[in-house]
Amino acid sequence: MSASGGTKAILAALAANLSIAVAKFVAAAFTGSSSMLAEGIHSVADSGNQALLLLGGRKAKRASTREHPFGYGRERYFYAFVVAVVLFAIGALFSLYEGYHKLTHAEPLSSPQWAFGVLIFAIIAEIFSFRTAIKEANAVRGDQSWMAFIRRSKSPELPVILLEDLGALLGLVFALFGVTMAVVTGNPVWDAVGTLMIGFLLAVISVVLAVETKSLLLGESAAPEMESRIRAALDATPQVDRVIHMKTLHIGPEELLVAAKIAVTRSDTAPEIAAGIDEAERRIREAVPIARVIYLEPDLDREAVGRV
């Protein structure tokens, strides 16, 4: 996770959420608004999540050990999954509970101007945070759609921050809707409705994050275009007749394991095969720099032998 990429977006979101959380709790205390309280808890959960992402990025940098020979790159996937759980357990469930409680025990709002002022401030702050996340994501997204970027990205931080910031903005809109309707109609039930909307929104986002990070934790292969470059590098190696089969696995966002069985001719000597494997590894790393661990198994080209 480069300092100019995911980390910058995380720090921007963390700074925004900490300041917003304080403002929301102050507004909730003055107004008695459940929407504001739910949004305050949402901002606290988001702040904790960003701290977890930073912690995961730091732990992932540890050197490999005998117990973990492939290093700790997947720490980032683990902490991203924890973020999804925290968002659901703290953000979504609390908001749903608070919304249900206010729906059954409605209380009138007091000093709604506090809520309006804080919500406007929070929306402006979240827009700046979201803008930073979009800018950093655009630098690596290429021509992918936003949905494809979130689903295919091997670095979990930017998709997490993007969805968190989007959820925060929509949550603020829902809170503003609930408070506005409660003031206009004089019916505090609308405040509870806004809180429930926030809870359902956070539940959906947390489920999406959990599904995507679970896939990364289980182990995903390289992107198709990356596998094509690896296969082309092998095919271009003079000592490699063809690729019999190949598998790839991300052992971290910027670390790829490549395992392939390559066909060699019967007349090749052991030194020639060894030199061919070294050349193939060099070409793979040149084509795909994140291919850190490469295992190539030579075998006879049995199809060619059968044709003779």
Could you describe the 3D structure shown?
The chain is mainly alpha-helical. It has a three-stranded mixed beta sheet with strand order 1-2-3. It is elongated. It folds into two domains: 6-218, Cation efflux protein transmembrane domain (Alpha-lytic protease prodomain-like, Up-down Bundle), CATH 1.20.1510.10; 224-307, 2-Layer Sandwich (Alpha-Beta Plaits), CATH 3.30.70.1350. Helix 9 (270-287) links the parallel strand 2 (255-264) and strand 3 (291-300). It contains ten helices and three strands.
In short, what is this structure?
The protein contains ten helices and three strands, in the order ααααααααββαβα. The protein is mainly α.
SSE topology string: HHHHHHHHEEHEH
Q: How many structurally independent domains?
A: 2
The 3D shape can be described as elongated
Number of strands: 3
Topology record:
Elements: H1 6-31, H2 34-59, H3 75-104, H4 112-141, H5 146-152, H6 157-185, H7 189-218, H8 224-235, E1 242-252, E2 255-264, H9 270-287, E3 291-300, H10 302-307
Parallel strand pairs: 2-3
Antiparallel strand pairs: 1-2
